[in-house]
Write a structure and sequence with these properties.
CATH class: Mainly Alpha
Helix content: 55-70%
Largest sheet: 2 strands, antiparallel
Structural class: alpha+beta
Number of strands: 2
Protein name: CopG domain protein DNA-binding domain protein
CATH topology: Arc Repressor Mutant
Strand order of the largest sheet: 1-2
Number of helices: 4
Strand content: 5-15%
Shape: globular
Organism: Thermoanaerobacter mathranii subsp. mathranii (strain DSM 11426 / CCUG 53645 / CIP 108742 / A3)
CATH architecture: Orthogonal Bundle
Number of domains: 1
């Protein structure tokens, strides 16, 4: 059996916490890694927002094990947005929660 690839995402403590809370509230995959994969496959923003509150010294690490196909998909997304994979994951999570917040404010 082939070993899965591992990719790493460094998130702000706030986004790290939100991933778990949102997954539990909405009964989605409850691990942060699975929640990030859920966002990647189900959220397709035209433009990513940059999380300017991020500081690597306070960042929280998430390790995600992915298949060859998943890794290729993520690499293609990173290339599309012209960012490194870790930055892609951080910004897509940030953009996702910003869009949710914007929708809540409209309601």
């Amino acid at each position: 059996m082939k070993e899965p690839h591992q990719i790493w995402a460094l998130l702000t403590p706030e986004m790290h916490k939100k991933l778990k809370e949102y997954a539990v509230e909405n009964q989605i995959a409850s691990t942060r890694a699975k929640m990030i994969m859920y966002i990647i496959y189900n959220f397709h923003p035209d433009q990513l927002l940059e999380d300017y509150t991020f500081q690597s010294k306070t960042g929280k690490m998430v390790n995600i094990k992915v298949s060859d196909t998943e890794l290729e998909y993520i690499k293609n997304l990173a290339q599309r947005y012209n960012v490194a994979i870790s930055r892609l994951l951080r910004n897509i999570v940030y953009t996702y929660f910003q869009s949710i917040e914007k929708e809540r404010q409209k309601a």
